[in-house]
Specification:
The complex is a heterodimer of chains A (114) and B (115). Chain A is mostly beta strands and 114 residues long. Helix content of chain A is 0%, strand content 61%. Chain A is built from no helices and eleven strands. Chain A is globular and about 50 Å long. The model of chain A has no long low-confidence stretch (mean pLDDT 94). With 115 residues, chain B is mostly beta strands. Chain B is built from no helices and eleven strands. In chain B, the strands form two sheets. In chain B, strands 2, 4, 5, 6, 9, 10 and 11 form a seven-stranded mixed β-sheet that branches. Chain B has a four-stranded antiparallel β-sheet with strand order 1-3-8-7, with no helix packed on it. In chain B, strand 5 and strand 6 form a beta hairpin. The radius of gyration of chain B is 13 Å and the shape is globular. Chain B starts with a strand and ends with a strand. The chains are: A mainly beta (114), B mainly beta (115). At the A-B interface, strand 5, strand 9 and strand 10 of A face strand 4, strand 5 and strand 10 of B.
Chain lengths: 114, 115
């Protein structure tokens, strides 16, 4: 089955710096890769996603890149701000006989200090 | 996100007791999911359902049970067989589109504590 590894588990940056979070997946059939942001005590919220037919997607300060050959994808946040501090989760869509489901990485706690 | 509700916000379970967590959505989504969140463990899939009256075990289904009698509702029962139930439980729903990605929307969560 699908397995998603996420690194680093914690990341501390200064305001204005860039932050990069990397994930690898095991199932070459996976074709959908969302990223979620979870603030303390709140529900995860989708911030960006990418499908396997594109290599990069950007939305303002956030971008995601996908390397299907190497089976890894990354989240890039530029010009970080204190409000970017949160836990970020990557996920990959798993499809089997039972149906489809998202398999999540263990999360990265991002701290942005001003 | 406001279309998915979970109750209660906090739930206390006594030893040997079964408890049920509620999840309701008014988004007309076909699929619903239950995740368990522990510190440093990410979101682990417990059960999921793609259509009414059908559900599948996720990666950590032992000690849990679900039902899907209505499209809008997907309750999760934490049974006495679950020896370490203390966690934050998240429900999610999504549209099922064949061959495409499916954005999952999460409820606010229920925190289960053992007395």
């Amino acid at each position: 089955g699908e397995n998603v590894e996420q690194h680093p588990s914690t990341l501390s940056v200064q305001e204005g710096d860039s932050a990069v979070i990397k994930c690898t997946y095991s199932d070459s059939a996976s074709n959908y890769f969302p990223w979620y942001k979870q603030e303390l005590g709140k529900r995860p919220q989708l911030i960006i996603d990418i499908r396997s037919n594109v290599g990069e997607k950007k939305d303002q300060r956030i971008a995601v890149t996908l390397n299907k050959t190497a089976k890894h994808f990354s989240l890039h946040i530029t010009e970080t701000q204190p409000e970017d501090s949160a836990v970020y989760f990557c996920a990959a869509r798993r499809t089997n006989q039972a149906g489809t489901a998202l398999i999540f990485g263990k999360g990265t706690t991002l701290s942005v200090s001003s | 996100d406001g279309g998915i509700t979970q109750s209660p916000k906090y739930l206390f379970r006594k030893e040997g007791q079964n408890v049920t967590l509620s999840c309701e959505q008014n988004l007309n989504h076909d699929a619903m999911y239950w995740y368990r969140q522990d510190p440093g463990q990410g979101l682990r899939l417990i059960y999921y359902s793609q259509i009414v009256n059908d559900f599948q075990k996720g990666d950590i289904a032992e000690g849990y049970s679900v039902s899907r009698e209505k499209k809008e509702s997907f309750p999760l029962t934490v049974t006495s067989a679950q020896k370490n139930p203390t966690a934050f439980y998240l429900c999610a729903s999504s549209i099922v589109i064949a061959g495409s990605g499916e954005t999952q929307y999460f409820g606010p969560g229920t925190r289960l504590l053992v007395l």
